[in-house]
Design brief:
The protein is an all-alpha fold. The chain is built from 7 helices and no strands.
């Protein structure tokens, strides 16, 4: 993505780069090699990736070196102009290639810019969809947990934990769900203990009542037997009389 950004920057300076190269060509035709090099360097500063701009710079420097050699060997200015005239076709050819390269890289960069914009749009849409999905999941979790609390309040711990399990399936990393699950289980355990204690209490009461009934029945049975014995003795007495 960084390379794309660099190419886009170069494409935005397309007009300036070409203008600098054309200015360099103008200065060369005027024999002002130093100013020509300055324009080339400006062009390369705007877009340092242009291969032919570098070749153009190197060729202009070679012209400068030949001019220097001619100045030492022959101070006649016409000889320097002849060197420039001799090298101009090559310079023009390199300049043409450099300009074409700038335009071609600009077209590529603009296409990449469009791709980059499309990718960015897709990323924004995906991020928006993810936000909507996250919000939807959060609402569902809240509904499940609310339902779980309502069932817990009515003592329906089994179905309450089922609602918590549904919420847990949506987001296993939510610590709030785990905390509510622990609270419901703790409440369920408390209810189970109370029910167990209540069953034990009822069992003790039932056992005590059976013992009391048995003791009462035993006393009643003994009283009846005594009555029967007394009746039999009275009957014997009457029979003897």
């Amino acid at each position: 993505m960084q390379n794309i950004s660099q190419k886009i920057i170069g494409a935005e300076h397309l007009t300036e780069v070409i203008a600098f190269l054309k200015n360099a060509d103008k200065y060369i035709r005027q024999g002002d090699i130093h100013h020509a090099l300055e324009e080339i360097m400006r062009a390369r500063d705007k877009n340092p990736t242009i291969m032919y701009a570098r070749a153009y710079e190197e060729y202009v420097r070679s012209v400068l070196l030949k001019q220097t050699d001619l100045s030492i060997a022959d101070p006649n200015a016409s000889s320097k102009e002849a060197v420039i005239a001799q090298l101009m076709p090559t310079l023009e050819r390199i300049l043409d290639l450099a300009i074409k390269e700038v335009k071609r890289s600009a077209v590529t960069a603009y296409k990449q810019k469009e791709v980059f914009a499309l990718q960015k749009q897709q990323e924004e849409e995906q991020r928006h969809e993810e936000q909507l999905r996250t919000a939807s999941i959060a609402r569902k979790i809240a509904d499940y947990l609310k339902r779980a609390r309502e069932l817990e309040a009515h003592g329906d711990y089994r179905n309450s934990l089922n609602e918590v399990a549904r919420a847990f399936m949506l987001d296993p990393t939510d610590e709030r769900i785990l905390q509510i699950e622990e609270e419901i289980k703790s409440a369920q355990d408390g209810q189970d203990r109370q029910e167990e204690e209540e069953r034990a209490r009822r069992h003790r009461e039932e056992e005590l009542r059976r013992q009391q009934l048995f003791a009462q029945w035993k006393l009643q049975r003994e009283a009846e037997r005594e009555q029967e014995v007394l009746k039999r003795e009275e009957a014997h007495k009457q029979a003897r009389a």
